[in-house]
Amino acid sequence: MIEVKQLGKSFGDLVVFRDIHLHIHPREIVVLVGPSGSGKSTLLRCLNGLEEPDAGSVVIGDASWDFSMDVSSKKQAIRKIRTSTGMVFQSFNLFPHMTVLENVIMAPTIVKKMSRTEAVEIGEALLAKVGLLNKRDEYPSRLSGGQQQRVAIARALAMQPEIMLFDEPTSALDPELTGEVLAVMKQLAEEGMTMIVVTHEMKFAREVANRVIFMSDGVIQEESTPEQFFKQPKTERARKFLRQIEGVPDIEYQV
Questions:
Q1: Which domain holds residue 133?
Q2: Residue 152 domain-assigned (yes or no)
């Protein structure tokens, strides 16, 4: 479903990542972990065209784009990719002057030209899914951070995406509110949503991911099952990373 080949991105002289290759199957849950500055979030943003890579190509479903395409073709491809992907960011980015329901239904009515009646029906079902139907007429300022992030997830799901991208969705939340958001993400995983998640929540990665990809210094250092990564990482860089994370048990060393 997702194919990334030789993807590279720099900002001036700073190489964010280079020569990234990924293949992600439908219904797979892939978690990207690694130290800050390793390129995880930028990679995620390149997948749906929020950042433009300097090299390589991205294929999502039947849409593809690469850095060498002309502007018109690239815009068309990115538009197609975005209709099949939903993205949730670190910050909630809800419109403060709109109610919760209005935030959720805005994109389907504008982008997909969905009728308001249909959009409201879908929006209410999604708010019920994330446990916030009773907040449909509230404004974001009256919600907790965890509630706002759950609204942001419902908003992304309202476009009926095939793939969900999560860029550290709990990094701005305290531990109690983090649990609310992770519970919704676990539910999506159980329902078969294809997901790529950038996170520092190692418990989530261990329990939910099919595959863990470890990035450092702008490259993929290793990828494996959660069991292998957390018990017997292949590289010294990954072992060092895990030792520094609170709550990760002692790892086994390869002999």
A1: 2-244
A2: yes
